[in-house]
Amino acid sequence: MARFGGLLVTGLREVTSDPAALDSTGFWAVAHDFEGRLICARFDELRPDPTPPGGATTGAAGGGWLGPHPDSWHSSLDRTAYTAGVRRIREHIAAGEVYQANLCRVLSAPLPDPARTDIDALTALLAHGNPAPYAGTIRLPSHGVEIATASPELYLRRQGDTVSSGPIKGTGRTEHDLLEKDHAENVMIVDLVRNDLGRVCETGSITVPDLCVVEKHPGLVHLVSTVQGTLRAGAGWPELLAGTFPPGSVTGAPKSSALRIIEALETAPRGPYCGAIGWVDADRGQAELAVGIRTFWIDRTEGRPVLRFGTGAGITWGSDPEREWDETELKAARLVAIASGTHLF
């Protein structure tokens, strides 16, 4: 099953990793891992079904949700390793190799009761405690996909041949926390997204309707921009994903250099975090894919289910290592508390 924007989709028909399927027919749920694994699931049944009331302990599978103990979380990079990584990125910037790179870490905690791991029930809790414009669930356990996202960031929206993206760069508790560095960071990523969309859009069609708009979300604010273009004739989902993935806001600029630096510094795969999560309605030529931030996923590869959550920050020459660590903590604190059952609604 999957759940997006007040719609519950069931009746799984097929699963494929071929992005060309998204140009065919039907309604698809899409999960694209940062490392490249693509799962496209076509469903037959769609019906309005708002997320269950906040605090619900039973989801569509009947098992409900019992989150990790709040003290059981550990990070792929501790504070010392993360701040050292920030300093290393600044060295790459000083050497002229990159302007910006997004440094991330993955939090993990064992789930105490395998019978109470319904990811859709976690989505219900997130919807109540941390509502987000691109929230959703994809639950395909036989394909290793169990995702609950409370993403605030648009990766790709498609309305026919019009394609748009809404990169986020710049985070603070309030608007007064945002620095000149945050605005510069956002503008750099806007240029990168313009370039990415330019690979698959008609020449001269790329515009930036909004630049560095302050958006308020639970517990924090973001700077958000909008980049838009017209898809060129003959370009479909394979070309669109090839030209723009991974999302620019969670990689860096230039993207190729940032990806090389990320691979050297990060110690855990990002998985769905920083990938793409959402839906494609091939019949109507519409789609909405979020950047997989503020996202939980269940990993059952080691037998006992483990809940994972990613958090990170964009590093520029103006970055202070301790402040960047604090930003990753800010982004994670509220959602991890919700998943662990310690956030007071």
3D structure, described in words:
The chain is an alpha+beta fold and 345 residues long. The protein has a single domain (2-75, 106-174, 189-245, 270-310, 327-340), classed as Anthranilate synthase (4-Layer Sandwich). 25% of the residues lie in helices and 36% in strands. The chain has an 18-stranded antiparallel β-sheet that branches. Helix 1 crosses helix 6 (321-340) and helix 2 (119-129) crosses helix 6. It is globular, with a radius of gyration of 19 Å. It starts with a strand and ends in a 5-residue tail after the last helix.
Report the structural category. Answer: alpha+beta
- Estimate nothing, just give the exact number of structural domains: 1
| CATH fold description | Anthranilate synthase
The CATH H-level homologous superfamily: Anthranilate synthase
User: Can you tell me the residue ranges where pLDDT is under 50 for at least 5 consecutive residues?
Assistant: 54-62
**Shape designation:** globular
Instruction: Please give the share of residues in helix.
Output: 10-25%
Provide the CATH architecture: 4-Layer Sandwich
Tally of strands: 18
Characterize the main sheet: 18 strands, antiparallel
Q: What is the CATH level 1 assignment?
A: Alpha Beta
Head-to-tail CA distance between termini: 27 Å
Overall mean confidence score, pLDDT: 94
